């Protein structure tokens, strides 16, 4: 371990020395690093607009290096093995990363000129993720006044910690704005989510009873911050913000005693109208319109309402690519209705044998999906399926990996966690399969009968009523276990 670290430091010194000689014009930046336990053969660098800038191949030591000429200061992103993270790059930076894919975000460390701002940015990402996991508990334990005070104290403490950091680290105004936004919008998002978690849908009418200044922060919101569009905290805020403000419209048009329904058509069309009126940036607007429409379509059982929602969406989006995506989604969902045969997709097993899903299925089967990039999910889903296997021993279970990296990385993960090799598969063509099966949420599972006809196209094994759903299918003889 000590030798490996010294080797990396020597690599870093050599590369940064080369960078210093090559960047006298001051318009370049260096980006390089080392990947421990790689899950692919390259690192993909994306520019500030989210487009692929370069594909950086790993060498025999799993290292890469790249000089970006004529660089503009910006929030760039890099992807490896399906995982993605951000890096602030500015002229004259020489940033090196080191990470272990087994704990991608937690192990990520930056070194070199420009490292301090990036290490602090990662620190805020991890803190946001940790706090987000506690949000339901916070919301259930604290009434509105308490929650308001709690968020203010937490927010102010995070900003104070950042102020102290800036006193020691000389970072640019641009880097300051990115890190501060990541702190701000995480706290703003928690306040937007709060009423849904605290009141629940049945009592959401009480959103009108929140403290008068509960949403004062909205005066500072930027709807068109294109430089933040890839940051999760900002996207999360916007997503729930429009859910929230549309509730006000819902109760303008319905009696206050009306039961709120998050999948009610007029409520969802109101969200699209609000996005259209408040957001001018095309990328941000189109993404919000796409995801809000997709959420509705995926949960609606009325074709007339889907058509109505799509008409509203089409009148507002400017993305032809998104329109094609939505039309494919609608077609896929139509083909996934109960009673229909599962689409003819090919799977590959651990021994590299190819077969269609219908060829493999010979009894009622539950198919669940996982990605090597979501460690907590794939560990929990496999553990949950073990419980279900014990409760429903005559049921079949198929574990399907959705990654598109080389098979050796899939097999390494399976062996590392000792998954049941008889039930493990991966798609021959992951992109096509995910679109065909409308899998954009890893919590989705599909239940089919012994002939691979669909019984339930979208269940969730982690939902509190899943066992009851299964038992009801058996009682109604839709699911026949012999």
Automatic annotation (TrEMBL):
Every Thioredoxin domain range: 336-475
Family annotation (PROSITE patterns): PROKAR_LIPOPROTEIN (PS51257), THIOREDOXIN_2 (PS51352)
Residues in the signal sequence: 1-22
Keywords attached to this entry: Signal
Protein name listed in UniProt: TlpA family protein disulfide reductase
Source species of the chain: Winogradskyella litorisediminis
């Amino acid at each position: 371990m000590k030798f490996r670290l010294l080797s990396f430091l020597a690599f870093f010194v050599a590369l940064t020395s080369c960078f210093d000689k090559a960047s006298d014009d001051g318009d370049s930046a260096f980006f390089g690093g080392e990947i421990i336990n790689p899950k692919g053969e390259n690192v993909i660098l994306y520019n500030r607009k989210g487009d692929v800038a370069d594909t950086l191949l790993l060498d025999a030591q799993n290292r890469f290096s790249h000089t970006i000429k004529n660089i503009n200061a910006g929030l760039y992103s890099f992807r490896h093995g399906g995982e993605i993270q951000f890096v602030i790059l500015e002229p004259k930076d020489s940033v090196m990363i080191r990470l272990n894919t087994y704990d991608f975000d937690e192990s990520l460390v930056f070194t070199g000129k420009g490292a301090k701002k990036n290490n602090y940015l990662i620190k805020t990402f991890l803190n946001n993720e940790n706090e987000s996991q506690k949000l339901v508990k916070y919301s259930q334990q604290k009434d509105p006044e308490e929650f308001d005070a709690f968020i203010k104290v937490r927010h102010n403490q995070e900003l104070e910690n950042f102020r102290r950091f800036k006193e020691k680290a000389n970072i640019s105004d641009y880097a300051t704005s990115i890190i501060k936004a990541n702190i701000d919008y995480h706290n703003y998002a928690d306040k937007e989510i709060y009423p849904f978690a605290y009141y629940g849908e049945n009592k959401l009418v009480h959103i009108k009873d929140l403290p008068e200044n509960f949403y004062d922060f909205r005066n500072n919101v930027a709807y068109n911050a294109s430089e933040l569009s890839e940051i999760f905290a900002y996207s999360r805020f916007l997503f729930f913000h429009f859910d929230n403000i549309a509730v006000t419209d819902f109760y303008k048009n319905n009696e206050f005693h009306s039961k709120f329904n998050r999948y009610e058509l007029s409520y969802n069309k109101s969200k699209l109208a609000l996005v259209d009126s408040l957001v001018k940036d095309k990328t941000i607007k189109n993404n919000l319109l796409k995801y809000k429409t997709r959420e509705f379509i995926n949960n609606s059982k009325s074709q007339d309402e889907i058509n109505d929602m799509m008409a509203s969406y089409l009148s507002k989006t400017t993305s032809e690519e998104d329109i094609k995506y939505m039309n494919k989604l609608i077609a896929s969902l139509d083909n996934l209705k109960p009673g229909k045969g599962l689409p003819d997709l090919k799977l590959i097993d651990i021994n590299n044998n190819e077969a269609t899903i219908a060829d493999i299925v010979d009894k009622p089967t539950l198919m669940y999906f996982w990605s090597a990039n979501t460690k907590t999910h794939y560990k929990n889903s496999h553990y949950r399926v073990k419980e279900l296997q014990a409760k429903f021993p005559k049921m079949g279970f198929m574990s399907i990996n959705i990654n598109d990296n080389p098979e050796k990385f899939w097999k390494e993960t399976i062996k590392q966690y000792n998954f049941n090799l008889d039930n493990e598969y991966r798609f021959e063509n992951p992109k096509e399969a995910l679109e065909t099966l409308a899998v954009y949420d890893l919590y989705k599972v599909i239940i089919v009968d012994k002939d691979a006809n669909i019984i339930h196209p979208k269940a969730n094994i982690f939902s509190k009523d899943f066992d009851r759903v299964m038992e009801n299918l058996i009682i109604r003889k839709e699911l026949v276990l012999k």
